Give the backbone structure.
Amino acid sequence: MIKCGRPRKGEELQSRDRLLDTAFNLFLENGYGNLSLETIARDARVSMRTIYSQFGGKVGLFGAVIRRCSDQFVTSLTEEHVLESSPEEALISFAKQFLYRITRPDVVRIRAILIGESPRFPDLATQFYEQGPQRTLDYLAQFFARQQQAGYFAEIDTHFLAEQFLSGLRSERILKLQLGLEPTPDEAEIDIWVRQAVDLFLYGSLKNRRNISNEHS
């Protein structure tokens, strides 16, 4: 029996997920510039019209792929979780999930593709930054703002705090990973990495900050 009319909502979600999964794998295999929408549509078993109506084209589709990955990052600091945890525990929990995901081979590969092709496709770079790093940064800034209101953090620009935390967390090891100079870390290695980074961010590196400040005043 031939099905007519509009697909049910569940079927639409399955079709969208299949499309995003297929697109992600094809981007990994082929890069961005060499991959056609026709290939994506064929492998995902959807029409070109579906891709254009839902995403506006290849740039929009890539942005949706990145946004879905980013969703996993930004939900790590939900309001409910933060209220149940100390700031240190919340940052450790977020950082473990963040580092585990960005150090996976597929994610390292997709970032390398983006960096290599962004000069030719500036809209691609915009989509990536807005849907990925910018969302994570904004969400962290909101976390620090809430914690400032609760009296945990000094009154420092929250976006600056978020930038410094992420920069310290990624560190030089991410560059080595991208260059293939370091193996993919396991959960135990990430746990040590995260605790060192969070401890340094929260408590600094001076043994007795107040005494040293007085000596130079």
Notes: The longest helix spans residues 9-30. The CA atoms of residues 210 and 216 lie 10 Å apart. The radius of gyration is 21 Å.
